[in-house]
Amino acid sequence: MKVHTLLGKRDFQMALNCLGSLVKMSTENVSLVVHDDGTLTSAELDTLSHTFPRLTIIERRMADEWAEAHLKSWPNCQSFRRRHILALKLFDVFILSEEDRITFCDSDVLFFRPFHGLQTPLKDFDAIFMRDIVNQLAFRSWDILIHNLRFVSHLNSGLFSIRRSLLDLERLEWFFKIQYPDLLKHFAEQTAWAVACSGLKTSFWNPAQIRIAHPSTHLTDTTVSFHYVGHYRSRLGTDLISEEPPSKSITLETISSDSVGFVQAGRSELERLGRRLMGKNPYPSAPYQQYGV
User: Fold this and answer.
1) CATH code of the domain in which 258 resides
2) Phi, psi at residue 204, to the nearest 5°?
3) Which of 37, 42, 45, 49 has its CA nearest to residue 6?
4) Residue 114, number of CB atoms within 10 A of its CB
């Protein structure tokens, strides 16, 4: 099974540790496909090759040539890819892949226990993503109303599996016509997934197994991995299993997702604003409580 990742010079050592945990803990053979973001040095490329024997490296220059040609009929998609480094997650894994089922893993997802089933749920679903703590979108609620957007609620693209045939460039071309605030550009790629998958059979990995690292949640017997997004990256390295992980492999499970629009997005904005006005953390204090973690 091939697993794609986007990798650059920043946080390179963290990426080695996290990707190493993926290869070690997956009881299905994993071949890594590293998409160079254009910043990796020759020494770092050599380190990757020595660390991961089953490895394919796609260098940025070659990827740019392929993507430019492939997206020439889709100028908005092409422009987004030129401007946004995370667009490589959205386009390149499809353009440069041959496999029917694509799995992508960010380089800040750390795995703790043996597991299997990254692509098995695609028998029943079109796509599987992580469930986020809140809706991290590139649009305000009034933009969602104006453009009549629907999206998969709480979608996080840190770890996903999807059918390759479902990349809808026409829909993405329409989506990237819409202007989003520069302040929220970091969420544009994730929002594109949320919109593109809103009409598909989309599910989430069970948060009891795979979730965002958060101060309220800790390792349990069911924990497979944490995604250490920027504001919780300080926890990386502190969540350690004190003894050898169990040899029994955990089967990855999924939960249902919801497609939502303006009303739900507006409610989320108001809740975060209310917490800020009261001097509280704008994010929920126990985001996965309903899943028992």
Assistant:
1) 3.90.550
2) -115, 150
3) 37
4) 16
